[in-house]
Amino acid sequence: MDKIIIQGGVPLTGCIEASGAKNAALPLLAASILVDGPVAYHRIPHLRDISTMMTLLAWQGADVEYDDRHCLHVDTRPATKSEAPYELVKTMRASSLVLGPLLARFGRAKVSLPGGCAIGARPIDMHLKGLTAMGASIEVEQGDIVARASNGLSGAHIVFDQVTVTGTENLMMAAVLAHGVSVLDNAAREPEIVNLADSLRALGAKIEGDGSNRIIIDGVQRLQGGEMTTIADRIETATYLAAGLITGGDVTVSGIDPGTLEAFLARVRDTGALVETGDNFVRCKSQGRLQAVDIHTLPHPGFPTDLQAQFMAMMTLADGASVIRETIFENRFMHVQELARMGADISLDGNTAVVHGREKISGAPVMATDLRASASLVLAGLAAEGETTVSRVYHIDRGYERIEEKLGKLGARIERHSASENWMQGARLNA
Ligand code: EPU
Asked: How many angstroms does the Cα of residue 241 sit away from the middle of ligand 1?
């Protein structure tokens, strides 16, 4: 298994380009199942989770082909299988995004039920409740969700009990080809939802209200082929900005709409750092030691749970105490013990962590436990005295494209020690 080795203590400076967002690209790829024609995808990040989704679509019988590194062609017209097997779902929960599209297209779907994961139980009951309201019958048989809607899905009024990102995406996709009008209330408002709605509209879908908590979808008979472009990755962008700040540096990320990062940038301003934004870039420049700032995670436009671990890493070196409350996932503090191994002073009580900033932390061997926790360990390693080795790097490869290359471009002393595995080869499918 690969390891990342970092010699800490170099202030990062410079400019890098944001990649396409993993969490936007995954639903866009799942949406190809709804389309009666070829789809050309742009700005697809080169990531492990993307290759898993490509493998899944190819396994169902779709033509899936890379044009160049970030452009992908998918044609699901030859697809015949309306299933997502356990072998793929177990490596990526977001495989369940194909449930709504498969049911809408084939009138049936068999998708392995995702289990719990490192950050929480993460049930998908609200996805299933919504599809049932649209007329599907749903059973769980031998670990698989078996959904049927032989006469097609019908529009329904669905009120989510809790904001769910992939739940909103799944039901939005299912509703696009349903008979009649669907209303999704208490819908997620993340920029990735708007990206999906924009992309579906470009192929003929009738969707209004995305970006608000009420989305209205008027079902159509068919979506025609066309193009979809993934938005920039706001979580990746903020991670690199945090890398600049934690090392006392000055980092600019281009190719990103700063409006997607408002909650994060507001908290960064509170630390005393300089934030500069333009149409298509964000710059964060350290102005001395960061001041401690409290955060609590919320659905968009609140502070993203996907940045909680990285912000905590920054706070381990801040001046003062920071209270960090995680309200989205019940178990998203796996990085705390690893940061403590590097000398961070963090106490945990339920969903709240209190970080007492230290003058310095020191390098150590640490272990990645999930994607964003891994990113926080890399950030801590960049700022720590001495050497940090982060193992189980496959978590990082799920969501950060060429992380060591991008950080290296900013001046970081970081290298990957590779094992022989080449996961991308297996994903270059045209089957
Ligand atoms: N929930 C339920 N029942 C459901 C659905 C969700 O109880 O049917 C709960 C979850 O357990 C959680 C909360 O609702 O406590 C919110 O979960 P949500 O459904 O919004 O999460 P998700 O859609 O599974 C996406 C991202 C995550 C991100 C969350 C929150 C994708 C592919 N994944 O997950 O991204 O943390 O939204 O913003 O979009 C990551 O990229 O590292 C990552 C984990």
From this structure: 24
Sequence-distant (≥ 6) Cβ neighbours of residue 86 within 8 angstroms: 112, 143, 144
Contact residues for 320 (Cβ-Cβ < 8 A; gap 6+): 291, 292, 357
Question: Is 284 one of the catalytic residues?
Answer: no
User: Hey, which of 56, 95, 166, 330 would you mutate to test ligand 1's pocket, going by the most ligand atoms within 8 Å of its Cβ?
Assistant: 166
Which domains, from first to last, does the chain contain?
A: 3-19+232-417 (3.65.10.10), 22-229 (3.65.10.10)
Q: What is the pLDDT of residues 111-152, one digit of tens each?
A: 998 876 777 778 899 999 999 999 999 999 999 999 999 999
Q: Classify residue 40 by its DSSP letter.
A: E
In 3D, which of 53, 57, 114, 55 has the Cα closest to residue 80? Answer: 57
Q: Which residues contact 428 (CB under 8 A, 6 or more apart)?
A: 66
255 vs 424 pLDDT, higher one:
255
The one catalytic residue in 15, 71, 117, 284 is: 117
Q: How far is the CA of 16 from the centre of ligand 1 (A)?
A: 28
In 3D, which of 326, 302, 398 has the Cα closest to residue 23?
398
Question: pTM for this structure?
Answer: 0.96
- Please tell me the distance from the alpha carbon of residue 122 to that of residue 138, in angstroms, as a whole number: 19
Write the DSSP assignment of 120-179 as a string of letters: B----HHHHHHHHHTT-EEEEETTEEEEE-TT--B--EEE-SS--HHHHHHHHHHHHTSB
